[in-house]
């Protein structure tokens, strides 16, 4: 359950609530609507708490969003890319797993579509530019990790010397971000899976599933 209401407390003592459940509700709302389109009133309603409790427990909206991004990054949706890179023995298998799981996860109806790190800072106001910068930094750090994995594959001979790992990492980042947006526009897992396979067909080295 994403949100829980405040529980009664002894007279004269502050009301308590399930902080983890409230944070999970905030993650879901930011994921669905993005930072700029989510108001404090909508957050407190979804989290089942009063504004004073939100400010006391999480600080302001920006601080809550920062914590929500961190919480999202600890979920299976937030870790599947890193897990693929770390757990697969070859770069091709890592990126094949990454793209195929993105197709399934981004269109999973049990949670909002797409990736929160991709969609969370759409249409932010100039005074909230730091939010967009924060998520851009997360996305770029992912691309840097992908490039490192591809450079390692090149050193071991899995990728030919003619390949530019930076460009290939950017290519897959573009595919993943596009898959996220397509899922937000209603694309299902079958369509996304076909896109993933088409992207993998461009792999410039040996392919082994």
UniProtKB/TrEMBL annotation:
Domain HTH tetR-type, chain residue ranges per copy: 16-76
Residues of the DNA-binding region: 39-58
UniProt keyword DNA-binding present: yes
Record-linked Gene3D superfamilies: Homeodomain-like, Tetracycline Repressor, domain 2
Pfam families per record: TetR_C_13 (PF16925), TetR_N (PF00440)
Keywords, sorted A to Z: DNA-binding, Transcription, Transcription regulation
Name recorded for this polypeptide: TetR/AcrR family transcriptional regulator
